[in-house]
């Protein structure tokens, strides 16, 4: 582990969902199971379209008689409107309270030294090395406590291959499997129905997921939003970048085919390689589906 780091996530906001029906409402809407969530415990989850695509991703945190949603700040207003569409007569109050909180991420050895009495904190449920997130009362926030920048946190995400909505996949365009929710504890396959659940279940049980957000590495520095190419054919796009490493939304079937034919992938004129574990997992998944489809003798 590295020395402890603390970064303010200024692009994150908070939506409050309170009232006696708050758990029932969210449980019937989001991809993860939040029933029985303990105080201060969090789930990584998404709200999908009926077609199964991610509209919003967030952390759901139990707080008092309801929940706090740690969500992209630019999306808080739209999330409030979307949740309110499903509220109907439920005893629920949905509010954007972003001005009342500041969100930070801490990781590395000694992160407990950053915890404040005024802060809620929870372990990032996506990956143990992503550390702890703090939801701090904005009135008591201490700007002097942060010593690092958002790019340090992005570098951590890239090293772990953890994508972020709006940067590594587009809202309204990606399925949970494509955004690695199945690999990063973002979806429950055992809970009851939720919006888009049938599509997610079908992808889990019957489909080879050909496109995913995966880690790539370049021969030199990469640039966000460049297309990933085989020759002049685009098979993906670069998202978050940390020097030569990046996360890209990529057609794994095409990338594997290129590898087997010794064809070079490029992005912005830079030769790239794809995380070998992602390619091998795709190969294994495709082989398993192909075997299952064969008629029994």
UniProtKB/TrEMBL annotation:
<protein>
    <submittedName>
        <fullName>Uncharacterized protein</fullName>
    </submittedName>
</protein>
<feature type="domain" description="GCVT N-terminal">
    <location>
        <begin position="13"/>
        <end position="102"/>
    </location>
</feature>
<dbReference type="InterPro" id="IPR006222">
    <property type="entry name" value="GCVT_N"/>
</dbReference>
<dbReference type="InterPro" id="IPR057460">
    <property type="entry name" value="CAF17_C"/>
</dbReference>
<dbReference type="InterPro" id="IPR017703">
    <property type="entry name" value="YgfZ/GCV_T_CS"/>
</dbReference>
<dbReference type="InterPro" id="IPR045179">
    <property type="entry name" value="YgfZ/GcvT"/>
</dbReference>
<dbReference type="Pfam" id="PF01571">
    <property type="entry name" value="GCV_T"/>
</dbReference>
<dbReference type="InterPro" id="IPR027266">
    <property type="entry name" value="TrmE/GcvT-like"/>
</dbReference>
<dbReference type="Pfam" id="PF25455">
    <property type="entry name" value="Beta-barrel_CAF17_C"/>
</dbReference>
<dbReference type="GO" id="GO:0016226">
    <property type="term" value="P:iron-sulfur cluster assembly"/>
</dbReference>
<feature type="domain" description="CAF17 C-terminal">
    <location>
        <begin position="210"/>
        <end position="275"/>
    </location>
</feature>
<keyword id="KW-0809">Transit peptide</keyword>
